[in-house]
Amino acid sequence: MGENWKAVVVAFVVAYAVAAVFVFRYPSPFAARVGGSTKWSKRKAREATEEEESFPEPMAKGDLTVEELKRYDGSNTALPVLLAAKGVIYDVTKGRDFYGKGGPYNGFAGIDCSRALAKVSLDAKDLNDDVSDLYAAERDVLNDWCRKFDDKYPVVGKVLGGAFDKS
């Protein structure tokens, strides 16, 4: 080592102390802020937000006609948000940010949106339950969406009078 090793050690200690002050004094800009305190977990922040939100009572199980389903399109916050895929109705109210009024997927709410899910489309012409001309890959995509909905949202019932009604 050279003659300046003491100066290098002192500079290192000072830099370390300054860095420590910044780390512990100022909150991270990447941490979620919940209730005035810094939380390091995005999951905890999301859970706290969900607790603050109020949702209507879960939809009672029961089948709905195509016309009745339209009432649950997310435009009335007092009602649950419902969508159907392959004739199965899901209560997606907890996903109101996505499926409710103003959400990016609001077009799916209140209808059987099987075709749009299969084609991964938001086009108005695809917002229906006609899956008669889908390719095998599109049917696989639709089945993947149905598995995702089954895992995430409660099933309310079936769509009566739709393309998947076997009665």
From TrEMBL:
SUPFAM superfamilies: Cytochrome b5-like heme/steroid binding domain (SSF55856). Pfam families: Cyt-b5. Residues 64-160 form the Cytochrome b5 heme-binding domain. Gene3D superfamilies: Cytochrome b5-like heme/steroid binding domain (3.10.120.10). One of its GO terms (cellular component) is membrane. It comes from the Eukaryota. The keyword Endoplasmic reticulum applies. InterPro entries: Cyt_B5-like_heme/steroid-bd, Cyt_B5-like_heme/steroid_sf, MAPR/NEUFC/NENF-like. It is found in: Endoplasmic reticulum. Its main location: endoplasmic reticulum. Keywords: Endoplasmic reticulum, Heme, Iron, Lipid-binding, Metal-binding, Steroid-binding. One of its GO terms (molecular function) is steroid binding. Belongs to the cytochrome b5 family. MAPR subfamily. This is Cytochrome b5 heme-binding domain-containing protein.
